[in-house]
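Here is one chain, start to finish.
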Amino acid sequence: MAFYEKISLEKGMYSNSQKSMTDILEELDPSVNYMGTELEGLDAFSRQLKRFDIKVSGAKSDPVEKFFQTTDSAALFPEYVSRAVRQGMERADVLGDIVAAKTSIAGMDYRSITSTPSEDDKSLKVVAEGAYIPQTKISTQENLVKLHKRGRMLVSSYEALRFQRLDLFTVTLGQIGAYIATAQLKDAIDVLLEGDGNSNPCEGITASETDNLSYKDLVAMWAKLSPYNLTTILAPTDAMCKMLSMSELKDSTAGQSFHGSGRMVTPLGAKLIHTTAMDKGTIIGVDKNCALEMVQAGDIITDYDKLIDRQLERATISCVAGFAKIFTDAGVKLTY
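Its structure:
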């Protein structure tokens, strides 16, 4: 019998808020030990699924009740739920295009750092021998980062789900993850626009024409952001339609990319992200390498007791996270 088949699984493995069930299993049963074997490529959780012959994907995936054949296999169910939700979050996640750093914390209180250089600080000066060297001041924020709990509640009985295929259930859980990712993007946009509670709202410029958006407005936003790089533009549906209609963005390269993949290419070199989390009349340009810090209090949280005991009704799946500005002027708001 292989070692992974001897591991005793129980609820206590979920008690560490900073480590997932997969992390705990990897410590007990490192994947490096399986290099060169038929199990190479599987992580510790996937080996446990193999141990109990649970297939979670494909046309011949098992029903939900397969997890509850033994007490050991039942302990895997909350981690399966968390992983399916995480996959949905990753598919819908665009935070990587606006977040410079991610910080995981053990509690609910976190104070970030910031730097707001003056125009003089941004200039590159020659320092003569023995002369004063220009400083960059880094300070702790006055107010704590506001963390928001985002999630969904499963409202179903075990009897209603026990015969459903895991492949279909995974799709449903993935949509919960997509909702969480969308809600977190809205939180990030709010911080970019209004600030993180430390009197640091986004600097703004106004379009040259009311209720219209032109290419020269995009150039003005690019110039306003200097010396930072314009890496990402966040835009609502109305703004995306206006940009797609700009003659400057109708060159052959942009057209081929948009028609072939749905991704819009701009001469400014920024990645355009369409989001419904913004109101009409505003777009945001940011330097993703300097703008935001994402703070997470643990990973995806599931009511593991309820899930293991087959009490699916009113079992919650959530994630606690917040955002803080790093360099206040690494983002610009354009109102049109």
